[in-house]
Amino acid sequence: MADLFIIGGGINGCGIARDAAGRGVSVILAEQGDLAQATSSSSTKLFHGGLRYLEYFEFRLVREALEERETLLAAMPHISWPMRFVLPWHSDMRFDNDTPTSRLLGLVMPWMKGRRPAWLIRLGLFLYDTLGGRKILPATRTLDLRTDPAGKPLQPKFRHAYEYSDCWIEDARLVVLNARDAQARGARIMVQTRVISATRTGDHWQVVTNGPDGPATHHARALVNAGGPWVGDIIRNVARINSTEGVRLVRGSHIVTRKLYDHDRCYFFQGTDGRIIFAIPYEQDFTLIGTTDQDHQGAPKEAVCTDEERDYLLAFASKYFAKPVTRDDVVWTYSGVRPLYNDGAKSATAATRDYVLSLDQTGGAPLLNVFGGKITTYRRLAESALEKLKPFFPGLQGKWTAHQPLPGGNFPVDGVADLTACLKSVHPYLSDYHAARLIRAYGTEAATMLGDARSLADLGRDFGATLTEAELRWLMTHEYARCAADVVWRRSKLGLRLTPLQIAAIDDHMTTRLTATPAAE
Ligand SMILES: Cc1cc2nc3c(=O)[nH]c(=O)nc-3n(C[C@H](O)[C@H](O)[C@H](O)COP(=O)(O)OP(=O)(O)OC[C@H]3O[C@@H](n4cnc5c(N)ncnc54)[C@H](O)[C@@H]3O)c2cc1C
Q: Which residues have CB under 6 Å of ligand 1?
């Protein structure tokens, strides 16, 4: 019998699995598809405090997220790095008229008519700089866009901007590295394994799964429902529990365009509809633009960026860039569904982004349901989840994840250039792009993956865009990859550079390998 059975291999399920396994709890995790296949690979990929949540007075969430940025950065300097955000200011920018701040301002300064005054943005950024105890990330500064290179791609009417700090995170890799670390600490991670039913039996849960080897039954003292957008479905149809708690499914879509500008900073654009979007340098040759906020009606896995959402993002960005961004610039889109706790907010934008952990003990063995949350707060959410479960595991060890690197992350925050140079000195046949990509993906483990290869030929077949047979083997053996989509859209974003034919060849290769060695991982 296991201590904990976790449903869902997104960031929350894998984060809880890692934390629990490191405290001596025996863990089984089941993911119905690939790790991070749902919301956790569809985010804007920021470790951020959420500047806009200040307008909703979400101070607890913002403080916790701001504190987390640097803790997480230090634990994974390969897959996370500091970013500077340029926020152009213009008098047209409006609030969402439903925020507590806009209502307050409407009372005391009615003549502003919903406009966001510059002093308020400066106050928000002052709070943003100070709330989270910043040590590594630089502070906010003002920019003159007429002279600063950040002004060059923008329309000339934008003359002033603020520049502040947040961090980038490779969201899907974060999930996989948490799963790997959980496994290294004793957890059992099952992919392509759907939980069909969970039934309280005496003092424990009986969980039935259907995976690659067919149906199986597991027993566990406690159950965690980290099903993300499926959290409500799992409560009602898997655990068959009546509950009034609801999840609000809010879809967010992104577009990826050809690179729109030449510097490495991001833009934070405010709209006249009260919303904000980001434009972010992406995968060296591209720009990521998002996101939208739409209540989502269909099944979570059917979320796609609609034509309306794409056109909305294009029009929004074109209000800022000097050269309009058009449909022809778009090379890829993706969409995800936020599993928000339903707090009854009027608009999807206003629904709380904070997480709620609800413990159900009716009838014995505990069930912990996870609602909402941010990628940024996953580690704190996992700590809170274990705090809730502590009464059921009396000998539970204390918190430990704050200063423990994830696999490959055991090097200094500013050590990427040195590590890349070191890898190139041992493997001089790697191009600069290839070496940098491997260090950003695998950190100190890149050298282990390459082993004693002396030439590109030693890495086996070349599948294109620097993806080699050796890397594929690593992803299948150590990172739970089972098909090409796992590799080219989640473990990496090489799908942006590979042709459909090349992706099909990767699929064929993986299928052959899986048939020959089904026990990989
Ligand atoms: C557009 C968008 C932008 C975002 N941007 C950011 C950002 O920049 N920064 C940030 O901090 N946060 C961001 N977020 C929020 C963040 O992405 C989510 O809070 C987080 O990914 C939720 O993770 P999760 O593990 O709860 O859900 P998921 O990642 O969806 O994982 C749930 C998993 O459960 C599995 N599952 C469901 N049912 C079963 C079953 N019966 N059996 C087995 N497995 C099952 C699913 O397949 C899925 O993989 C964003 C979200 C969206 C949608």
A: 7-13, 30-33, 37-40, 42-46, 48, 194-195, 226-230, 234, 238, 252, 291, 336-339, 370, 373-376
